[in-house]
Amino acid sequence: MENFRVAVKSFIVQEGKLLVIKRRSDDVHKPGQWDIPGGRLELGEDPMEGLRRETQEETHLEVDIVLPLEVRHFTREDGQKITMIIFLCKLLGGELRLSKEHQAYEWVNVEKDDGKIPVWLNLAKDNFLKYNFNMA
């Protein structure tokens, strides 16, 4: 059986700013890099429920899932094949507190990226801007 997983990510925008979280410097996968909340689904897990679970685990935030912005396929350094679905999400509530997997967070301007939005999010960011979603 092929080593294949599905991952989901939360593209959370509020007042024109995207939530990015920084992985710990001792993280096994992409240490010290900026990311957005999310992770791999459990076997048989509903993608929407998995996204809410991962977002809650990593940030303690509750989100409303608006729509998918992008679907990506790639192979990690360890050979694991991933299909990732990036969802546009609206913040519903909660107090932002990071999990032990992350060391920092920032709300960054979606239109004027200062280098903290990962390059692999360019298509999702472009789709967000192209369709001019109002996420006030």
UniProtKB/TrEMBL annotation:
Its cofactor is Mg(2+). Coiled coil: none annotated. Residues 3-134 form the Nudix hydrolase domain. Keywords: Hydrolase. It comes from the Bacteria. SUPFAM superfamilies: Nudix. Pfam families: NUDIX (PF00293). PANTHER family: GDP-MANNOSE MANNOSYL HYDROLASE, MUTT_NUDIX FAMILY PROTEIN. This is Nudix hydrolase domain-containing protein. It comes from Candidatus Wildermuthbacteria bacterium RIFCSPHIGHO2_02_FULL_47_12.
